[in-house]
């Protein structure tokens, strides 16, 4: 099978509104993780292609796109959002096949992408500066301006959602973008760029160069013509990107995942919590930056929570993405090997439950059954490291202080949640937990396009999503006029 997203040749890059073969002429196979087959070949873009893409973006920024009004940008984004919805079935199918996520989860990502376009389309003309009272005879005001050319290096786990939050916000402000999707999954990035072109986004305002991280990604992060970089992915690559950006003092926004806890107190409503405790761990087979991979439970309810979660885990089934079960495969055999390595490290823990792999799941697929462990050592690698697979650990705590100590005791700080009916405790926890987002009696709040998102510590820095992202994708100019 060769897949042609929206009829496109998937081995091309989009540069200056033209679909072109990569200058290197080389390609990479794109694997369907549900069965190991090759979906198609994609471009293996490299430094020359990145140069051309950055030039095209610069041309757009110095041209029609750079002169567009906020109203015009908002309308283009709204049209892109509508085209995304008009093609929702094809986009969901592409994402399901490419990433391996169950169809329903892929469809939720399509809807979120459209919602990002709607949100940032509506926000484009609401971003403004201020006037500042100053010395006698002066008028001082600030202008919110785009950075110029922005680079976006995105991962494979939620391509559409991450394009929405990152490219959507950057375009709303008036930046021209170069997008480097992940080599494991890039079909919806290609389809999105084509829909943006069809919606009337001016030539060069969005360019897409698929390719290997060490080639296309490294070239983009080291490029002196890029004025801002946003990256979502691993801590290791985040460090490389921040240090290569340092050569040109290019500002970076980094979102590097986490080890996000949910805290279940003695007064928690377990019936309400249970679906969130499990889903936040196994959604997208656990390959989610904000996955909740640690469940911290007050010792008085440890047994009860463990057996309730175990019963759910035993009923979970992983299978073909298009069969739309609880989980699909992991994105690749490589990711499966990483996750199986962690499961092997759990040999000294108590295995509370495992889920199943569907009988018809092809042997060439990257399937991993969900694993639930209990863990009495918060320093254990399964309680410290990002696993990025369907593996959760349940850890007991004695009291509030102990819970905070464990919750904050990793190098990460992306998301945390608290299940308690005690209002004062909710407020204390919201203050004490080290995380960019804290949820009280929920987890994830349904995706939350409107909600600023980002981390502390090794989870990264900068905020994406919500109106806040528009500040990150813009820069402030102060104008001081002396008129006497
Ligand atoms: P990765 O960090 O290598 O890949 C993410 C993106 O960075 C891809 O587009 C890749 O091509 C690009 N990239 C890779 N090397 C690069 C370089 N030297 N310069 C510039 N760009 C580069 O992540 P990978 O290897 O796919 O996954 C490994 C682990 O990373 C996962 O197990 C998970 O723990 C973490 N991860 C976290 C994500 C998140 O949402 N925060 C997303 C993906 C991975
Ligand atoms: Mg793939």
Features:
484 residues, alpha/beta, six-stranded mixed sheet, 22 strands, binds 1,4-dihydronicotinamide adenine dinucleotide, binds magnesium ion
What does this entry look like structurally?
By secondary structure, the chain is an alpha/beta fold. The protein is 37% helix and 21% strand. The protein is built from 15 helices and 22 strands. Strands 15-17-18-13-12-19-20 form a 7-stranded mixed sheet, sandwiched between helices. A 6-stranded mixed sheet has the order 9-8-7-10-11-21, with helices on both faces. Helix 2 (70-86) packs antiparallel against helix 4 and helix 9 (270-282) crosses helix 10 (302-314). The chain starts with 12 loop residues before the first strand and ends with a strand. The structure holds 1,4-dihydronicotinamide adenine dinucleotide and magnesium ion. 1,4-dihydronicotinamide adenine dinucleotide (NAI) binds at residues 153-155, 157, 180, 182-183, 213-214, 217-218, 221, 232-234, 237, 240-241, 255-257, 289, 338, 386, 388.
